């Protein structure tokens, strides 16, 4: 497995249940499975808990973890221990569910730790989802699509408006809107954004193209030609002006016509006399060729010898 391969398997207990069945289906009983002792209320101290008693966070927006980064964190934990505690909520029967810190938990298990420090909080499903998503958005290096999906879940499953969401995550409403628009891109483009083949700036340019097929064409051009955001904007601008496809190669303005003035004509005539051969200028724009005619091999040899002697 390469260093940049992704870790998808959860190395600790995974709660069974499908996300598509709604928040309540993710827990056995949202009303009774939370320990309500004051000992576990928000703001309590750090406690050591058994990693075998921790369930994965079903609301975790990050689905992939870089193996290389996990290994590096694991090696650090072996030397220094887990410095930053994870955050969990207390479930029934001395079980816990992660709110944040899945990467640290994975690395701790890899390092061989049996117990890790944790902040223990109480939260119902909706509060759990909000805390997990918002903390991940603010702390983790999520890619743009993961952020967009997190925003979407906060809006839909926590019944937030975009203004409220912006306040929760400390972003302008326009920023939230721009992220949500990314989810309208074709799957191929979204994957490219996740894999850093294009930037969010590129994605915004692609969104300015209405046709889905043309969006994919533009995405491939950006990737294959390593286009900058400005370069992509120029393609879209010219395509709209000329009413062509982004797949079309932008036409360049015709070069200026090359003019042979009297001074150049005099020099051409002088070369003609010196070589005793016809001399012609073939030009296209500001580039061209000097063509010297010869009759046969001996004449060619004579001309070349004359040019070499003048060198």
Description:
- The protein folds into four domains: 6-136, Conserved hypothetical protein from pyrococcus furiosus pfu- 392566-001, ParB domain (Alpha-Beta Complex); 143-184; 196-242, no CATH class; 262-310, no CATH class.
- It contains twelve helices and nine strands.
- Helix 3 packs antiparallel against helix 4 and helix 8 (200-207) packs parallel to helix 10.
- It has 311 residues and is α/β, with parallel strands linked by helices.
- The strands form three sheets. A five-stranded mixed β-sheet has the order 2-7-5-6-3. It has a two-stranded antiparallel ribbon with strand order 1-4.
Which features characterize this protein?
311 residues, alpha/beta, Conserved hypothetical protein from pyrococcus furiosus pfu- 392566-001, ParB domain, 12 helices, 13% strand, disordered N terminus
CATH architecture of the largest domain: Alpha-Beta Complex
Query: How many separate structural domains?
Result: 4
Average pLDDT rating: 76
Uncertain stretches of 5 or more adjacent residues: 1-5, 16-43, 250-257
- In the sheet with the most strands, the strands line up as 2-7-5-6-3
What about the largest sheet? 5 strands, mixed
Short description:
This protein is an alpha/beta fold and 311 residues long. Helix content is 45%, strand content 13%.
SSE layout:
Blueprint: E1 6-7, E2 46-50, E3 54-55, E4 65-66, H1 67-80, E5 86-90, E6 96-100, H2 102-110, E7 115-121, H3 125-139, H4 144-157, H5 162-169, H6 173-181, H7 187-194, H8 200-207, H9 212-225, H10 229-242, H11 262-275, E8 279-284, E9 287-292, H12 297-310
Parallel strand pairs: 3-6, 5-7
Antiparallel strand pairs: 1-4, 2-7, 5-6, 8-9
Helix pairs in contact: 1-2, 3-4, 4-6, 5-6, 8-9, 8-10
């Amino acid at each position: 497995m390469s260093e940049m391969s992704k870790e998808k398997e959860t190395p600790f207990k995974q709660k069974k249940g499908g996300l598509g069945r709604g928040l309540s289906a993710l827990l056995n009983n949202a009303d009774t499975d939370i320990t309500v002792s004051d000992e576990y209320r928000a703001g309590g101290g750090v406690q050591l808990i058994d990693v075998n008693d921790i369930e994965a966070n079903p609301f975790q927006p990050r689905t992939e973890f870089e193996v290389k980064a996990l290994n590096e964190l694991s090696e650090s934990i072996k030397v220094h221990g887990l410095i930053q505690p994870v955050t969990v909520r207390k479930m029934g029967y001395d079980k816990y569910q992660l709110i944040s810190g899945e990467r640290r938990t994975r690395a701790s298990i890899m390092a061989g730790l049996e117990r890790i420090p944790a902040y223990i909080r109480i939260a119902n499903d909706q509060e759990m989802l909000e805390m997990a998503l918002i903390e991940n958005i603010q702390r983790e290096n999520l890619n743009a699509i993961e952020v967009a999906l997190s925003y979407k879940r906060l809006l839909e499953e926590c019944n937030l408006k975009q203004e409220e969401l912006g306040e929760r995550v400390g972003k302008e409403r326009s920023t939230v809107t721009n992220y949500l628009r990314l989810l309208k891109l074709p799957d191929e483009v979204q994957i490219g954004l996740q894999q850093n083949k294009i930037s969010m700036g590129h994605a915004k340019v692609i969104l300015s193209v209405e046709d889905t097929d043309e969006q994919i064409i533009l995405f491939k051009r950006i990737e294959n030609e390593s286009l900058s955001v400005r370069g992509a904007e120029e393609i879209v601008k010219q395509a709209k002006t000329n009413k062509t496809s982004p797949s079309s190669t932008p036409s360049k303005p015709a070069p200026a016509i090359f003019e042979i003035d009297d001074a150049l004509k005099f020099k051409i005539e002088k070369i003609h006399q010196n070589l005793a051969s016809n001399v012609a200028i073939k030009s296209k724009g500001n580039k061209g060729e000097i063509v010297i005619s010869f009759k046969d091999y001996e004449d060619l040899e004579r001309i070349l010898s004359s040019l070499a002697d003048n060198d």
